[in-house]
Design brief:
About 75% of the residues lie in helices and about 0% in strands.
Length: about 130
């Protein structure tokens, strides 16, 4: 995916979150477009929403985006698996792979404060950088 090694930056993690959200939005648009095209065909005998080639083009774009998300997820999973501390791995998985907010991670991990898991992850990432 153009990003080599096991090194993961905060920016790359953020990009993954954004890419995964972008994929969900694209899948929703494609589903809507397909439904409209099918309804138009059933009612009119042709599609007012766009021809079948537009739908096929969007299908290919969504498939390519899915592959990019999959490749980044694999890289993130490998990075997290390489972390020595179990508690840090757990926090990273909840936040970056499961998409939980930091507040939800805190609750799941039963931290008393509001930043315990975030501080833990920051420390691990700094250690990996150093």
């Amino acid at each position: 995916m153009g990003q080599e090694g096991n090194h993961l930056t905060r920016e790359r993690l953020k990009q993954y979150e954004d890419l995964a959200a972008e994929l969900k939005e694209a899948e929703t648009r494609l589903h809507r477009q397909t439904q409209h095209a099918e309804q138009d065909l059933a009612v009119n005998g042709y599609s007012l929403f766009g021809d079948i080639f537009d739908v096929e083009r969007h299908v290919l774009e969504v498939e390519q985006m899915r592959e990019r998300v999959r490749c980044e997820r694999v890289a993130i999973e490998r990075y997290i698996d390489s972390i020595a501390e179990s508690i840090a791995r757990r926090a990273m998985r909840l936040r970056y792979l499961d998409g939980m907010s930091w507040a939800d991670v805190e609750i799941r991990m039963r931290y008393a404060g509001e930043s315990g898991s975030r501080v833990l992850c920051e420390r691990v990432m700094q250690k990996q950088d150093g």
